[in-house]
Design goal:
Layout (H helix, E strand, L loop, with lengths): L2 H17 L3 H10 L5 H8 L6 E3 L22 E8 L2 E8 L10 H17 L3 E5 L10 H17 L5 E5 L2 E3 L4 H5 L2 E5 L4 E3 L3 H8 L5 H5 L1 H8 L4 E3 L2 H14 L38 H8 L6 E3 L7 E8 L2 E8 L10 H16 L4 E7 L6 H5 L2 H14 L4 E10 H6 L9 E4 L4 E3 L3 H8 L1 H5 L4 H15 L3 H6 L5 E2 L5 H11 L18
Parallel strand pairs: 3-4, 4-5, 5-7, 6-8, 7-9, 12-13, 13-14, 14-15, 14-16, 15-17
Antiparallel strand pairs: 1-2, 2-3, 10-11, 11-12
């Protein structure tokens, strides 16, 4: 064997050693937990044969606590680029089989490199997190590494899509990188996120709580709203990430991929003419409306378990990716509150940042009253949604189905927030408040003087409804473009989006606004 062949053999051996990660025992232990390794996850995510690994031979340079004697393959992270359905993405996957995936100075440099390249190339970055936290032996260098990653997250925000998959523990400062990204997915039963773990909580507060109850997937999906998606299996998780990518563009200078549409844009649905109940207090399911009007009834929902009174997600109209925001009358009458407002606001801002048109389906009776909401700053959270819609320059099509009252009418993409095309069904009630409430306020004194106060109020309610609680008062002033037949909603939205395809709108020159936070 000549020298060149020896060197090639050495290269092959080195590669194999790094690819083996934590060795057979470490990999077996990972599998016993029902978890895949970093490389196995990347193999599932990326198109076969497309992965180009970077910095495979990077090693740590810590000498504290005899660390110079410890070999950590790839410094516990796999980084590089590949394609998903033929589209370029940059990836990093922490390897829990190697030093528990702990973050070090050199790991952060590897992650920062792919994030920098993703921004330069205009491609999404996907991080698969599975780490025990900062590598304590490296002290401040590990903390500095987190800071470098966070700065990249901030600089990349609104420039390229950022997706975080939480496939194991993610605690302490590590949680802030996913929190700065656009979408988070957590694994049910095997992942958690928290700033301080159960032991610290017990020591400081005396509270006994498990890691799952403190920061598990179900908690963050339904209570805190930290995660947008959960998955029961890692295969499901990877499928969800792939689906998400199919609806979003590569970067903020491009549009989302357009797919061939075999669903006629002029398809009508007579069931929509009957879906609104005669009783204004009776619920119906907004999902039925959404699935009726979008291409092939396909709706990719986001934040499904959180703030259920509002629905957000992606769909397509005539093959074009669109963000949908819709009140859900079936849950708390579709009322807006602190959580639903911030849930929708963040989604609207994502769509606006990445050139995705917005379709808003409105049936909102108002903001949830009560001291709980007021003390939870519902004013500020509601203002977030108002700000998001008012700031957005993407095409905005709004359809009011039934109720649209008071301040909640304004925040749901009304004409005054630069809504482009605002339509209403004949059942729409666009007013300051409901007829019953208005009549009670306007005629309370007169009612007391009547022989039959109830009949008097009922008469005034009917008068108010005829004058204001209908779409024609708004149409008279040009606040809505047209009153449309429900069965034709799909066609009107499709045609409206086509009309707005070349929309150009700017905001006043400024460094940035100061959104209510």
């Amino acid at each position: 064997m000549n020298i060149q062949q020896e060197r090639i053999s050495e290269l092959i051996e080195r590669r194999e050693k790094v690819r083996n990660g934590g060795g057979e025992k470490g990999i077996a232990k990972q599998h016993e937990k029902g978890k895949y390794t970093a490389r196995e996850r990347l193999a599932m995510l990326l198109d076969e044969g497309s992965f180009e690994e970077m910095d495979m031979f990077v090693e740590h340079r810590c000498t504290n606590f005899d660390m110079e004697k410890k070999y950590i393959p790839g410094d516990a992270v796999v980084t590089g680029s590949g394609t998903v359905n033929g589209r370029l993405v940059y990836v990093f996957a922490q390897d829990f089989t190697v030093s528990a995936g702990s973050l070090s100075e050199m790991m952060s440099k590897k992650i920062c490199k792919v994030m920098d390249m993703a921004m330069q190339m205009g491609a999404p970055v996907i991080g698969l997190n599975d780490s025990g936290g900062a590598r304590i032996q490296e002290g401040i260098n590990a903390l500095a590494g987190y800071g470098e990653i966070f700065e990249r997250n901030i600089l990349a925000s609104g420039v390229i899509p950022q997706i975080s998959g939480i496939f194991g523990p993610c605690a302490g400062g590590a949680v802030y990188s996913p929190a700065l990204t656009d979408f988070i997915l957590m694994m049910e039963g095997t992942s958690n996120m928290f700033l301080t773990g159960p032991k610290v909580v017990k020591t400081v507060l005396g509270e006994d709580i498990t890691a799952e109850d403190l920061g598990g997937a179900s908690v963050h999906a339904s209570k805190s709203g930290v995660t947008q998606f959960t998955a029961a299996t890692e295969e499901d998780a990877i499928t969800t990430i792939k689906q998400l990518l199919s609806y979003i563009p590569q970067n903020n200078m491009e549009e989302a991929p357009r797919v061939e549409c075999n669903d006629p844009i002029d398809r009508t649905d007579d069931s929509l003419n009957e879906i609104i109940p005669d009783n204004p207090n009776q619920a119906y399911d907004m999902y039925e409306v959404i699935k009726s009007v979008v291409d092939n009834g396909e709706f990719f929902e986001i934040h499904k378990a959180f703030a259920k009174s509002i629905i957000i997600g992606f769909a397509r109209f005539n093959g074009q990716s669109v963000g949908i925001v819709a009140n859900q009358p079936k849950f708390m009458a579709g009322v807006l509150d602190s959580n639903s407002s911030r849930k929708a606001a963040r989604f609207v801002r994502f769509c606006d940042a990445f050139n995705i048109p917005l379709v808003t389906l409105v049936d909102v009776p108002g903001f949830l009253p009560g001291s709980g909401q007021e003390h939870n700053a519902v004013i500020v959270h509601g203002a977030k949604l108002l700000y998001a819609y008012g700031e957005a320059t993407v095409p905005k099509v709004t359809v009011t189905l039934r109720k649209s009252y008071g301040g909640s009418h304004i925040v749901m993409s009304c004409k005054q927030l630069r809504g482009d095309l605002n339509y209403a069904w004949p059942s729409a009630e666009i007013a300051v408040m409901g007829a019953a409430g208005a009549a009670g306020v306007l005629y309370a004194k007169e009612a007391k003087e009547q022989a039959d106060p109830k009949a008097f109020i009922a008469e005034k309610e009917a008068e108010y409804t005829k004058l204001f609680a209908n779409p024609y008062a708004a149409a008279k002033y040009g606040y809505i473009e047209d009153v449309i037949e429900p069965r034709n909603t799909r066609f009107r939205i499709c045609r409206g989006l086509a009309q707005l395809a070349n929309k150009k709108q700017t905001v006043p020159a400024k460094k940035h606004g100061n959104i209510p936070l």
